[in-house]
Design brief:
Helices cover 54% and strands 17% of the residues. The protein has 188 residues and is of the alpha+beta class. The protein has one domain. Helix 2 packs across helix 4 and helix 4 packs antiparallel against helix 5.
Length: 188
């Protein structure tokens, strides 16, 4: 058995977590047909990124809150976590860092059209924008139009043809397909 390392690349762009709600507002417009479907697919990605950030925020709160005798976070009557002043300061710093952190959207053949549609929607928005919101949108459009290259390494296990003939099911056709696919991937 041998292992081949296949190096591939794809494109991606990154946007700060704090802009997720801003993007939701810009994309919350009536659309029809394919344009709506492409926008909705992008919103699903944003929703997942928002959930990821919210999960991290809740995890921070649970970690930093005061604990009861069973080690569970204490939640006050106003439905907020009970934090010491020091931990509140630490939480605010960590939350700021989380909102300033970037989330990454990978670009593949399967979502290129969706991203092009969203860029066009952003460029042609009819939403009134303040100067600062306009600058943020311009930055996001530029990032989406000029994604960064990401290098991937994939390890694939290949079984030699004569070894695969000894496997149950005979012939080893699946392994040959995988090997030829790997060779194709190397040339791409």
């Amino acid at each position: 058995m041998s292992i081949k390392i296949i190096k591939t690349t794809h494109m991606s762009f990154k946007i700060k977590n704090k802009y997720i709600n801003f993007l939701f507002k810009l994309l919350d417009i009536p659309l029809h047909g394919e344009e709506r479907r492409e926008r909705d697919a992008f919103i699903k990605v944003l929703l997942q990124k928002e959930r990821d950030a919210e999960d991290e925020r809740l995890s921070l709160l649970q970690e930093l809150s005061k604990k009861d005798k069973n080690g569970k976070p204490i939640i006050k009557a106003d439905n907020n976590y009970d934090l010491t002043p020091e931990n509140l300061t630490l939480f605010q710093k960590e939350l700021t860092d989380l909102m300033e952190a970037y989330f990454i959207i990978d670009i593949f053949d399967s979502n290129k059209k969706q991203i092009s549609t969203v860029i066009r929607l952003f460029e042609n928005t009819n939403s009134p924008l303040t100067y600062s919101d306009g600058k943020i949108l311009d930055e996001i459009i530029e990032v989406m139009k000029h994604p960064e290259e990401v290098k991937d390494e994939q390890k694939k296990k290949l079984i030699k043809d004569d070894e695969s003939k000894n496997n149950i099911g005979g012939g080893g056709g699946e392994n040959k397909k995988e090997e030829s696919k790997t060779e194709e991937e190397k040339t791409e």
